[in-house]
Write a structure and sequence with these properties.
The structure holds two protein chains of two kinds. Chain A is of the alpha/beta class. Helix content of chain A is about 40%, strand content about 10%. Chain A has 15 helices and twelve strands. The radius of gyration of chain A is 24 Å and the shape is globular. In chain B, helix 4 packs across helix 5, helix 10 runs antiparallel to helix 13 and helix 13 packs across helix 14. The radius of gyration of chain B is 37 Å and the shape is elongated. Chain B is about 45% helix and about 15% strand. The chains are: A alpha/beta, B alpha/beta. The interface between A and B is large, with 96 and 90 residues.
Chain lengths: ~400, ~475
């Protein structure tokens, strides 16, 4: 293994990293804790580490690259579609292995995220990706994180083998509806994708039952938002279905982003970035706070989330009769619905109130979101009976911090 | 105020602090009578405290707080911890369970700051490769933590880079790993660390390429990666330029007209891409032979044997030791028994296809012996894809499950042999269920063997008649 990186490989790396950056899934968490031991290299801690942040606010956790950006598919939203004129490049299996190992040794990354354009055939492409993971694990004793983006059209036995070496396998749904898929990704087939997800779920469950290693960190998917006219409600509906039917660990939302060499069927303007983060917030409410899609959607208008405020606050403003909730007596489920109070803050409130009657300043020490929570809470020294009826409540909780609040900062 | 002065070591001094707490508590010194200072050597001044004091029983949660908080750079850390200890010992045993108490809250925040600093060290430390005169490689990093966390952060690097030789240099000390033990070293300066690394330019290129100029949001970046860490991160040098050039890059992208693709329409390539299914049994067998075994132990795939259009396809469990060595199915004792029963039942051996549900020998090595391991349901299901394709190519008139594993593979679910012995449809394939020949070999006494053999013979005679019926019907 050479100790240098030649110019050709450097240039390829730029092209194939650039080509992979629109894939939102980059988490390195969820793998079982392990270490490469005396002769191997690497470890996973369960939580994952972000090794750097770029000026777009996203983290660099994994070496996220494509094996190649040649592709036979022609998906409109994708910079690598066959009709795009971007520069093309292709890594060999050994080159990806070398980059992963050498970057890892310098503590730049947690592991590898490998995706690929489809060349020759889905099986050929999938096999090459599988060989990268296999070489890392078997020939280099690599114990870091490996995430492979599988090709749903590939034969099931290849995906099965990939699962032996990877921590996570994922399949991108890309577009939330069959109709959009047909229009924007003509060669992709929603049924094939869902069948592959179903098979993946089954294999993961079986392997877990048999204590066998197969994609131990589960499966995830990515949905591109804003390239078609699907509403937020429909996107979330689709996600709720995915969580339920395929036991997905995460659905990643990627706001359609302007790309060089855009296709003509795409909207000229990208959707606001805020849409993506509102969807993540809503997704979180769906998975951890007991909200339904209908409740979340009711906080917005016409199936779209309110871009100005987070979905929990939006829901609370439309359900003022449910508030205020007493921090000293309210049930956990009700406290979880208070804007500004996260699950951890709620647990701490419940722990602390066994010892004292909580005043507002106590709550401020337990939660960083008191400013938003305040109008919706009753505390020992605080009873906002009229506050939640005020028409300007929305402005009140979203405007810049009033002076007197700095006491609690 | 009588006044006691406690002097602790620079950095984190958990043992000095623990000793001082014992002695202070033994003499019942309240917190406001202690002045904590940091310097060389741990000592107590201006006092008549006992030299030795017994350990004090304290709640576990308190120990768990002391350990990280002593790493904090706040000079007040020991005073705060002692106040907390005092209160816990004097009437507030459950103090730590109230996160809303101002002192608990403050110490919790200090603990959080330590956790964060350790995490940032794990994330933002960068190794550079060096070579000693003998050519042995060592990876060296320079890092400036905010708190005294070197010892708290080091185990992570030992665990992750155990097989590498490495050094971590900081202004307050250094740690050196040689593959076996972690050595403590003196404080270092930035000049002691290597200047650069051959992979840094490539890494910076990667970092620049993953940045999406259409999403520029430096506030979030700075929140997660504060500027104080930047100077020791090679990729961070690219940040100012990335931010400056972002608007122009986005403008360019938005103004760019959709161009006509340079390539001709690759419809043919796309069509052929979907056509990747194996078209013959040979093609399928090539795929199976080239695939990684999905069971532990196996060395090679043992493929099915027999004619296409066979009258009967016999499906066994998996190859055994002999089959794995020779590369053919049913060549061991079980295969010989099958041959015998087929001859006696007048089943034409030349019209029988023999294969296994699982294509690889799953075994565990015990000394020189390779002990057969039963494949799990998941493993059988995986191999099922291959088995079904195989049978599609062979098109036997009758498909026979030999034993419970074959039945699982053919029926797609676990079923007992006893209740299902005899005819059965496997989806739309006419089928038959019987025992695996090795079952007969394992029977303990001759009488039972004889009886089982007769039943087995009867099964094969029934199979022969079934095939004759099927052939007559289709003739």
């Amino acid at each position: 293994m050479g100790a240098t990186l030649d110019e050709k490989l450097k240039a390829k790396l730029r092209i194939l990293a650039d080509a992979a950056k629109y894939d939102a899934s980059c988490a390195s968490s969820g793998a079982p804790k392990r270490s490469g031991g005396m002769t191997g290299l690497g470890s996973t801690t369960g939580a994952g580490i972000c090794h750097a942040y770029t000026p777009d606010g996203r983290c660099v956790s994994l070496l996220k690259i494509l094996l190649t950006n040649y592709c036979l598919f022609d998906c409109a939203y994708c910079v690598n579609r066959r009709s795009s004129n971007v520069r093309r490049a292709r890594f060999t299996v050994d080159e990806v292995v070398k980059l992963t190992i050498e970057f890892y040794k310098r503590n730049y990354i947690e592991g590898l995220f490998l995706s690929s354009g489809i060349i020759r055939s889905p099986d050929h492409t999938m096999e090459e990706m599988m060989r990268v993971a296999k070489a890392l694990r078997r020939d280099h004793g690599f114990a870091g994180y490996i995430h492979l983006k599988t090709i749903p059209e590939a034969s099931p036995w290849l995906i099965e083998q990939a699962g032996l070496w990877a921590d996570r396998l994922s399949i991108n749904l890309e577009l939330p509806s069959q109709r959009s898929l047909k229009r924007l990704a003509p060669e992709k087939d929603g049924t094939t994708i869902r069948t592959a997800m179903g098979q993946m779920r089954e294999r993961i469950a079986e392997a877990r039952e048999e204590k066998r290693r197969f994609s131990p960190a589960g499966q995830s998917t990515q949905v591109i938002v804003g390239a078609d006219d699907t509403t937020d409600e429909a996107v979330l509906q689709s996600s709720a279905g995915l969580y339920e039917r395929y036991d997905l660990k995460r659905v990643y939302y990627s706001a359609f982003s302007p790309i060089p060499e855009p296709s003509r069927v795409l909207p000229v303007k990208p959707p606001p970035m805020q849409r993506e983060s509102r969807l993540y917030q809503a997704d979180w409410l769906l998975r951890h706070y007991g909200f339904t899609v209908a409740e979340i959607a009711a906080g917005g208008e016409g199936g779209m989330l309110d871009l100005g405020i987070d979905p929990k606050l939006a829901w609370a403003l439309k359900n003022r009769d449910r508030f205020p909730v007493d921090v000293n007596t309210g049930e956990r489920e009700l406290l979880l619905r208070v804007p500004g109070l996260g699950a951890r803050a709620v647990d701490r409130i419940i722990q602390a109130r066994r010892h004292r009657r909580l005043r507002l300043e106590d709550v401020a020490r337990l939660s960083s979101g008191l400013r938003r929570a305040r109008p919706f809470l009753i505390a020992a020294d605080h009873r906002p009976v009229r506050l939640t009826d005020r028409l300007d409540l929305r402005r009140l909780v979203t405007s810049p911090v009033p002076q007197q609040m700095s006491l609690f900062a | 105020m009588t006044g006691h002065r406690v002097q602790l070591d620079e950095g984190a001094d958990p043992s000095g602090f623990r000793l001082a707490v014992r002695r202070l508590l033994a003499a019942a010194v309240p917190p406001d009578e202690v002045a904590w200072t940091i310097g060389r050597g741990s000592d107590l001044f201006g006092s008549d405290l006992p030299e030795e004091a017994p350990p004090v029983p304290l709640p576990r949660a308190l120990h768990q707080l002391v350990e990280p908080v002593v790493c904090h750079s706040d000079p007040e850390r020991y005073a705060l911890l002692y106040t907390l200890t005092w209160r816990v010992r004097h009437g507030e045993p459950a103090l730590l369970q109230d996160p809303s108490d101002p002192l608990v809250h403050r110490l919790e925040r200090m603990r959080k700051a330590i956790r964060r600093d350790v995490h940032k060290m794990h994330a933002f430390l960068r190794f550079r490769r060096t070579e000693d005169p003998n050519g042995a490689e060592r990876f060296v990093a320079w890092f400036e933590p905010e708190h005294h966390i070197l010892d708290a952060a080091a185990p992570f690097f030992v665990d992750r880079f155990r097989s590498m030789a490495w050094s971590i240099l900081t202004p307050s000390g250094s740690r050196h790993w040689d593959g076996r033990s972690l050595l403590r070293g003196p404080p270092a300066t930035r000049a002691d660390a290597p200047e650069g690394d051959a992979f840094e330019a490539g890494w910076r290129g990667y970092y620049e390429s993953v940045f999406n100029p259409a999403r520029v949001n430096p506030g979030v970046m700075r929140g997660e990666m504060p500027k104080k860490y930047w100077r020791n991160m090679p990729e961070a040098q690219a940040i100012p330029h990335l931010i400056r050039s972002a608007p122009a890059r986005v403008r360019d992208m938005l103004e760019q007209e959709a161009a006509m693709p340079a390539k001709r329409n690759p419809d043919k390539a796309v069509a052929s891409m979907f056509d990747q299914e194996p078209r013959t049994l040979e093609e399928l067998n090539r795929i199976i032979a080239a695939s990684e075994p999905l069971v532990p132990g196996a060395t090679r795939a043992v493929l099915g044997e027999g004619p296409i259009g066979a009258a009967i396809a016999l499906v066994g469990e998996q190859p055994g030791d002999q089959e794995d060595l020779q590369g053919h199915p049913f060549v061991g004792p079980a295969g010989q028994l099958l041959d015998q029963v087929m001859t006696e039942a007048a089943v034409d051996r030349g019209r029988v296809y023999i294969t296994n549900a699982v294509k690889h020998f799953k075994f565990e090595q015990r000394g020189k012996r390779r002990i057969h391991q039963k494949p799990t349901a998941g493993e059988v299901k995986h191999y099922r894809w291959w088995l079904m394709r195989e049978l599609d190519f062979v098109r036997p008139e009758l498909t026979v499950a030999l034993g419970v594993t074959a039945l699982l593979a053919l029926a797609g679910k676990a079923l007992p042999i006893g209740k299902n012995r005899g005819e059965m449809m496997f989806e739309d394939r006419p089928g038959f269920v019987t025992v695996h020949p090795s079952y007969l070999l394992r029977l303990p006494d001759e009488a039972a063997k004889r009886q089982a053999y007769d039943a087995y013979l009867a099964d094969f005679r029934r199979m022969r008649r079934m095939v004759e019926r099927i052939e007559a019907a289709s003739a």
